[in-house]
Design goal:
The protein has about 180 residues and is mostly helical. About 50% of the residues lie in helices and about 0% in strands.
Length: about 180
Amino acid sequence: MSSSPATVPARPAPSPARRGAKPARKASARPKRRPQQGRAAAKRPVRLVRPARKRRRRSAPFLVLSGLLIGALVVGIVTLQAMVSQTSFRMQDLQARAKALQQQYGEQTLAVARLSAPGRIAAAAHRAGLMLPDASQVYTLHVRASSGGRAHEQPATSAAATGAGAPAGSSSKAVLGAQP
């Protein structure tokens, strides 16, 4: 072994562009070639590799469609909210109207009850000159469903008033007369 300087060539430092690249292999005595690849590589022209295009053109229609969809949803929600509010106001108006109508119905029912009270009717009849008849002038009619028989009338003091011996059918024609 000799102490002469090393005959092994020094490796060059990797360039900044090739930092992540694999280290260069040692040169061999005979390069390995593939027969067809070497010829095709020599005949192929060198071309410039351009960077990949950005996807802005493809994303633009997506952005436009999604913007339109979101806008339509916002308009739909606002419209729905307006309709709900309008329906709520209408329901409040109808409830107030129903309450007023119930109050009016109660007042009218009370007025009918006052007007149809027996004491008021008797007082109005007395002012009009009407009087109650004597008990002997009052006739009670008992009307039963009959099979076509003639009706009879009886005074209130008779047996028909007690229900004993009542005829099969009674008619008011005899009491009122033969008026049409």
